[in-house]
Amino acid sequence: MSSTKSYAVHSATTPLTPWTLDRRDPKPHDVQLEILFCGVCHSDLHFARNDWGISIYPVVPGHEIIGRVIAVGGHVKKFKVGDIAGIGCLVDSCRECDNCKEGLEQYCFGGAVFSYNGTEKDGSGLTYGGYSKEILCHEDFVLRISDKQPLEAVAPLLCAGITTYSPLRHWKVGKGQKVAILGLGGLGHMGVKLAASMGAEVTVLSHTASKAADAKRLGAHKFILTTDEEQAKSVANYFDLILDTVSAEHDYNFYLGMLRTNGTMVCVGVPPPSPPVGAFNLIFQRRSLAGSLIGGLPETQEMLDYCAEHNIVSDVEVIAMKDINKAYERLLKGDVKYRFVIDMATL
Length: 347
Ligand code: NAP
Ligand code: ZN
Ligand code: ZN
Fold this sequence. Notes:
With about 350 residues, this protein is an alpha/beta fold. The protein has helices spanning about 40-50, 100, 150-155, 160-170, 185-195, 210-220, 230-235, 250-255, 280-285, 295-310, 325-330, and strands spanning about 1-10, 15-25, 30-40, 65-70, 85, 90, 115, 135-140, 145, 180, 200-205, 220-225, 240-245, 260-265, 290, 315-320, 340-345. Strands 3, 4, 5, 8, 9, 16 and 17 form a seven-stranded mixed β-sheet that branches. The radius of gyration is 20 Å and the shape is globular. The protein is built from eleven helices and 17 strands. Helix 4 packs across helix 5 and helix 4 crosses helix 10 (about 295-310). NADP nicotinamide-adenine-dinucleotide phosphate (NAP) binds near residues 208, 247, 248, 270 and 294.
């Protein structure tokens, strides 16, 4: 065991505070990182506040991790000391089920191990995430990072990037398709950049009028203020795909009406509690409501390489570790452009 400094939350109603945690001993296939940057995902906030009722305290959030390799086990082939590398939302899975064999580790039937609030397969205890100085995991769950892009702006790709890239690929988004990104936050702004880069006509559906100019700058062709009845009506039966990234309770039925015949709304946002769905909204126009969870390791690497090739990064506001609680309050208000990233040198 080795101790490492971190910020943890100990209950749903208390702020994050400094905490020393013990990491398990490294194994022959493990890569150990000194964390340089960690993005702040809204899921971190959901877990900190126990919004989904599944938090196990203390929680050390953070799953958009970029670091420098400081040690490798004897069997590690992919990385060497000094490399820059990434760890996203997953640190292990069963490796044997059909999904794992296909590189869909996020849907592992044996139970994927998430970077925090998860349980290590070897029984060594809970996983703790990236709001910490050091982390380690099996090399298969460590990603290669391009040295051509600013690292703080690459960090959010490890969750916000892959969570939007994966459904856009799965539903074969491209030229000639009309795609809506619902909610312009951390996931949403990556969804806009990625969908636009794939050639789709991109519309931002937002409840914040002041984001219109940013939506266009990020690559959207249209902006619809969803609280404006006329604007909302103008996109009735319009979209092939809606990617719903909203973190708070909202009316699915209102947005389902914006899908054309055979259109699909993909939920990636996880509002507590889950909104009710009217079957008629699906039946008329043969619409689908779907969900998607982050992405597997091969697709995450593919997305990182794609972003390096197409010069896509996240728009970030770098913060000091001590300001994390203020950042959470701002995240709740939607006051972030468009991802907070913690400079871990400040821990
Ligand atoms: P975020 O940066 O806070 O963005 C969420 C956006 O939702 C806001 O910017 C806002 O956009 C919109 N919104 C917030 N409150 C709203 C309300 N009351 N009504 C309508 N719209 C509202 O959050 P994020 O980090 O992108 O995460 C978004 C959600 O995805 C979270 O629930 C998170 O847990 C989930 N998530 C899921 C996965 C997955 O694998 N499926 C992965 C990562 C995160 P506008 O101001 O433009 O309306
Ligand atoms: Zn996340
Ligand atoms: Zn599996």
